[in-house]
Amino acid sequence: MKTLPILPTAPCSSSRGPADTSGGLRRSGRALLLLIAATALLAGCKKQPAAPAASAPEVTVTTVVQQDTPVDFEFTAQTQSSREVEIRARVDGFLDKRLYVEGAVVKAGQTMFQMDSKPFEAALQTAKGQLAQQQARLQVARANLARVEPLAAQNALSKKDLDDAIGNEKQSAAAVIAAQGEVQTAQLNLGYTTIKSPLMGLSSFARQQDGSYVTATANGLLTYVYQLDPMWVNFSISENEMLKYRDQIAAGQLKFPAHNDFIVNLILADGSVFSQSGRIDFANPAFNTETGTFLVRAVFANPKGMLRPGQFVKARVSGAIRPSSILVPQRAVLQGSKSHFVWVVDDQSKARQRVIEVGDWHGEDWFVSDGLKPGERIVVDGALRVSPGSSLKIVKGPAPASGAAAPAAAAGSESSTPAPSTQAQGAAQGTRNGATQ
Fold this sequence. Notes:
This protein is about 30% helix and about 30% strand. It is an alpha+beta fold.
């Protein structure tokens, strides 16, 4: 305690004049100061009131439920035309003109290019002339054979003459057949000068311009036509993922639909979902030795042509389930130095730390493969302010945010190490873990 300095006193005077009056006033003032000082000292010695006891933290809880849960798998995929046809020149010659609009949809049988047909028309005319010559020779050979046969029967001609007549008739007939083949070849080559689309689809740009000399072997590629309906979507599954699925199926943690009849939906680049659903129609029986992936193909109806070849999309594969699985909100799971854990609420509304084994994410939830039982309650919101053994105040709805750090956890609690998941989840877990240190 502090003491006040004692003021010096004036010597007493035996005189009873005015000096006596001033001395009395001074004595009264000193007494008043002493009284005030004593009061202040007593007030300073009083004990400060004790701080109120910390209230139980407010939290929200959820009850653990075990049920069959449908799961989806997402893969990066790329669209591919179900029929990608090369439009090529089949004969050598000059390209007269292009008869289609580049990038437009062409119909089956529509003419796309026209080559110079005059040389091929002349070749056809020559082949027809040669055919007529052979047909005339055949007619003469048959007439000669008709005269020789009765004479040979009467022994008027030798056997050799008959054999020669028969041989000439057969040679002439064979020459007619060969000439007919030449005519057909010339007709085909003339037809190849008009190049048509074999299917309905989206055309590409022209690789050769009007007036170019094209050959069937060197520069015969003219353009492409892509069929848009149906459309293929290809995606790959890594070898590790494939082995993981097999292990989970063997352990009863995952179940595929019968006959692998999955439903596939597409998420486009802008986040919208394609209106048509697809089915898996092909899976490559061998892994790609360069990438270590397993190619899977789904087929989609594309009547409006919204999908184009080469688009990058996300393929969401649905149809699998996780039988008797447990899901907990991601924000309820905390990360310790060696494992994940949650706060379990007992019958006395007190918190108990429980180590769990987590699996895959499912939206905003997390699959828990070990550590929890159906019917148990776990803390969801407000876990930052929970310590082992602390009493909890369970409220409905999100718990109020706390501006101060949570009380230190008791000895033996998990230390903080952010989980190596997404950046946002890691930051959130780091914040939670800091409250349990």
